[in-house]
């Protein structure tokens, strides 16, 4: 009976570590996707070190979970006490680090507010100056999502014009409607848009548009994080039970 129980625990340990392996692979892939940065969000929040390093923390955690899941599977199948102890100690450290990161993310969640992005936009945005990374990134986001500013075109009223601009305009070109939402897309009516005619402008703020676009993925990421923490906890319990059961 004891042997059957130990065998069952061994395969349960393998199963839990397989899920940790998959969770680590997902976090690793997500971290790489953010760092590759196809839409330029990393540059928008680059002024905030906490947000800037978040992708690298996610990448590191994903890589460690990926490796430990693999080691846990090997330790369980081969019934190696050294590997199991190594696995338990490191997954405990990762568990505590992830819990700390979740608490810090909750404490500093105000850095993702509408007011924060509005303040950063008004402080750093330089309109059509594509040599400035922040401005170029914001222009790419506004074109891609067919939005304007954080709250709407009114965000740009207090932003000064470029010294070499000969046309007095409030709305940047990136807020003008295009037939295709890309930098290569033709303007519907650029002159009318810059003249202030609203029906040729993208009037909705990017904060609302992006929040609606990624709302499902945010909940999915939260559910995944909770699931990974729960799996890690059970894996540590099984690792200790298996460690004590191996003669």
Automatic annotation (TrEMBL):
Signal peptide: none annotated. GO terms for cellular component: plasma membrane. It is found in: Membrane. This is Tetraspanin. It comes from Neodrepanis coruscans (wattled asity). Keywords: Glycoprotein, Membrane, Transmembrane, Transmembrane helix. The chain crosses the membrane at residues 12-36, 56-77, 84-108, 217-243. The keyword Glycoprotein applies.
């Amino acid at each position: 009976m004891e042997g059957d129980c130990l065998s069952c625990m061994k395969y349960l340990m393998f199963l839990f570590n397989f899920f940790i392996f998959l969770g680590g692979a997902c976090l690793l892939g997500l971290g790489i996707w953010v760092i590759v940065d196809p839409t330029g969000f990393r540059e928008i929040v680059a002024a905030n070190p906490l947000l800037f390093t978040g992708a690298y923390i996610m990448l590191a955690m994903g890589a460690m979970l990926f490796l430990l899941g693999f080691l846990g599977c090997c330790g369980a199948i081969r019934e190696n006490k050294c590997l199991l102890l190594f696995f338990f100690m490191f997954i405990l450290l990762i568990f505590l680090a992830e819990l700390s990161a979740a608490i810090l993310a909750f404490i500093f969640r105000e850095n993702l507010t509408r007011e924060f992005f509005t303040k950063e936009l008004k402080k750093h945005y330089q309109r059509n100056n594509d040599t400035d990374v922040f401005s170029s990134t914001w222009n790419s986001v506004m074109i891609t999502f067919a939005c304007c500013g954080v709250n709407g075109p009114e965000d740009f009223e207090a932003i000064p014009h470029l010294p070499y601009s000969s046309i007095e305009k409030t709305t940047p070109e990136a807020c003008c409607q295009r037939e295709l939402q890309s930098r290569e897309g033709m303007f519907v009516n650029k002159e009318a848009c810059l003249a202030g005619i609203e029906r040729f402008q993208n009037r909705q703020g990017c904060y609302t548009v992006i929040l609606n676009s990624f709302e499902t993925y945010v909940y999915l990421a939260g559910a995944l994080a909770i699931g990974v923490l729960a799996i890690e906890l059970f894996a540590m319990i099984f690792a200790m039970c298996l460690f004590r059961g191996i003669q």
